[in-house]
Amino acid sequence: MNRSEIIILLIAAIISVVKWVMERGKEEAPPAVDGERRRRLSEMRQEKARQSTGSPSANAEEERLRKFMEALGLPASGPPPVPSRKPATPAQSGETQPP
Predict the structure, then answer these.
(1) In this structure, how many other beta carbons lie within 10 angstroms of the beta carbon of residue 23?
(2) Which terminal residue of the chain has fewer beta carbons within 10 Å of its beta carbon, N or C?
(3) What is the rounded average pLDDT for all residues in the chain?
(4) How many degrees, rounded to 5, is the angle at CA 68 between CA 60 and CA 46?
(5) ∠ CA(37), CA(23), CA(18), 5° rounding?
(6) Are 19 and 13 a contacting pair, CB within 8 Å?
């Protein structure tokens, strides 16, 4: 056997082992995980239903924007900061400037 055959056999063995481990993990998944997933999904659906019926979308959007601005460290009220501009660069030596 030469080197390339050994490498190919090793790769095939590694792939087989990984596939076997993945299949075994699927079979042994505890039923509590499935129940927990269902419970979380139902809670998320209930929360979405409460949010959609509890407040108008305009207030929800304003609240979302306020939280975003706070996360950026910007004040919640007041005008937005003025962006800084680069100073004008002098004309290159080959160009003429208007009087």
Answers:
(1) 10
(2) C
(3) 76
(4) 40
(5) 120
(6) no
pTM exceeds 0.70 for this model: no
More confident residue, 67 or 1: 67
In DSSP notation, 5-71 reads HHHHHHHHHHHHHHHHHHHHHHHT--HHHHHHHHHHHHHHHHHHHHHHHHS-HHHHHHHHHHHHHHH
Position of tokens 């962006």? 83
Q: How far is CA 65 from the centre of its chain?
A: 18
Per-position b or e across 45-57, b if 16+ CB within 10 A of its CB: eeeeeeeeeeeee
42-45-51 Cα angle (round to 5): 140
> What pLDDT, in 10s, does the model give residues 53-85?
555 667 788 888 888 888 887 766 666 666 677
Return d(Cα 76, Cα 69) in angstroms, integer: 6
